[in-house]
Design brief:
CATH class of the largest domain: Mainly Alpha
CATH architecture of the largest domain: Up-down Bundle
Number of strands: 8
Bound molecules: flavin-adenine dinucleotide
Shape: globular
Order of helices and strands: HHHHHHEEEEEEEEHHHHHH
Structural class: alpha+beta
CATH superfamily of the largest domain: Butyryl-CoA Dehydrogenase, subunit A, domain 3
Helix content: 40-55%
Mean pLDDT: 95
Low-confidence stretches: none
Oligomer: single chain
Length: 374
């Protein structure tokens, strides 16, 4: 175990911090920039620097960097609030999925656009009656009757689809075998968002932001070559994809920029009873941050036991809610005004909902990690 970063990795982190700080400086909102900070110009900048697909094999156009090198870049960018959302899902999840489950043709078809930062992806999993319970998905994909390579026709409705209004591609989970048990019979498709039959309605959240959407799919035709992985085996694939989704540093640093500002503001407070109480909370916050970061690093090193990303995400995102409250306490009564701090207090519960709710993750920890039974 070596905790010290090599000079080369430290230099990369310094450069990423500089880029992140410069880019985010003029943004009105820097919180949750991996989900709401959608800026295609910045995507081009990330691509130019080779900061998308950093760890993917060079034969597919990836950077061939180590997981630690990617970690320091991502940590620096998201902590600063740099607008990485237009490339984030593809970098974190879709690329690794194509590398793991896709065909060579699919990798050749879609990885270049991701690495170039030109293609934005969204993830169509949740439905009005299928959020925590993915197996309840009802959007159907039916293959046309003329042979194994025939097109699929998709009908259904997705909801909470982040970035769908701007995305070029959707990674979509559909029911392909209605007679199979609920956990079987799901398949994954890559869908061109410009296909006829797709309607996107942005949904306004309580902070006024419209980053996630309802997506209606009516008779959407998708070629068989866009089926990713094993037909009817999506549930197994989703479980692997969730490991990419849940245990990363994005789950810890969504409101880090605001926290660091609050920590600076704290230094200017009068030395009184309130300040001493806040000091206790800052000490706890620093300890929690250190613990959560160590858990993420274990994921990065590939040394986490199966299912531990649920622990990492639960602890880190509950901590992010605590951070939102702490920032509010530093600001005091001003928090009641409409500003970044109050917005973050309203938004923060979402950290523990997206990507699997805390309650569901605790079920997973109890059942699968600790073996406590169902
Ligand atoms: C900001 C944000 C962005 C999102 N982006 C996307 C996206 O891009 N793509 C996408 O597909 N989805 C996205 N989602 C949806 C997200 O994955 C779902 O909201 C989440 O999985 C919960 O599903 P649900 O909202 O249907 O709640 P439900 O599943 O209806 O749950 C409601 C409540 O009941 C609890 N509950 C449910 N079942 C159990 C159980 N068995 N045991 C204990 N408690 C239970 C839950 O914890 C929750 O508190 C996003 C959500 C948010 C908030």
């Amino acid at each position: 175990m070596e905790f010290e970063l090599s000079p080369c990795v430290r230099a990369l982190a310094t450069e990423a911090r500089r880029v992140g700080a410069t880019t985010a400086a003029s943004l009105p909102i820097r919180e949750d920039s991996w989900l709401v900070g959608n800026d295609r110009e910045f995507s081009a900048e990330l691509a130019r620097r080779g900061w998308i697909g950093m760890t993917w094999p060079t034969e597919f156009g990836g950077g061939g960097y180590s997981a630690m090198e990617r970690f320091v870049v991502i940590e620096a960018l998201i902590s600063a609030g740099a607008p990485v959302a237009a490339t984030w899902f593809a970098d974190r999840q879709i690329g690794p999925t194509l590398l793991q489950f896709g065909t060579d043709e699919q990798r050749e078809r879609w990885l270049p656009g991701i690495i170039a930062g030109t293609d934005m992806w969204c993830i169509g999993m949740s439905e009005p009656d299928a959020g925590s319970d993915v197996a309840a998905i009802r959007t159907t994909a039916v293959q046309q009757a003329h042979g194994r390579d025939a097109d699929w026709i998709i009908n259904g409705q997705k909801v909470w689809t982040s970035g769908a209004m701007d995305a070029d591609w959707m990674y979509l989970v559909c029911r392909t075998d209605p007679d199979a048990p609920a956990h079987r019979g799901l398949s994954e498709f890559i869908v061109d968002m410009n296909s006829p039959g797709i309607t996107v309605h942005p949904i306004k959240d309580m902070t006024g932001n419209e980053h996630f959407c309802e997506v209606i799919l009516e008779e959407v035709r998708v070629p068989n070559s866009n089926l990713c992985g094993e037909p009817n085996e999506s549930f197994r694939q989703i479980m692997r994809q969730m490991e990419h989704e849940r245990g990363g540093i994005d789950r810890l640093v969504s409101n880090r920029a605001l926290y660091l500002e609050a920590r600076e503001a704290y230094r200017t407070l009068e030395n009184n009873y309130r300040q001493r109480l806040l000091r206790q909370r800052f000490a706890r916050a620093e300890t929690m941050y250190f613990i959560c970061r160590q858990m993420v690093l274990r994921e990065v090193a590939g040394q986490s036991p199966q299912g531990w990303s649920s622990l990492t995400k639960t602890l880190a995102t509950e901590f992010e809610i605590e951070v939102a409250g702490l920032c509010g306490s530093v600001l005091g009564a001003e928090t009641m005004l409409q500003n970044r701090t109050s917005r973050n207090i309203c938004y923060a519960p979402g950290y523990t909902i997206m990507g699997g709710t805390t309650q569901i993750l605790r079920n997973i920890i109890g059942e699968r990690v600790l073996g406590l039974g169902r």
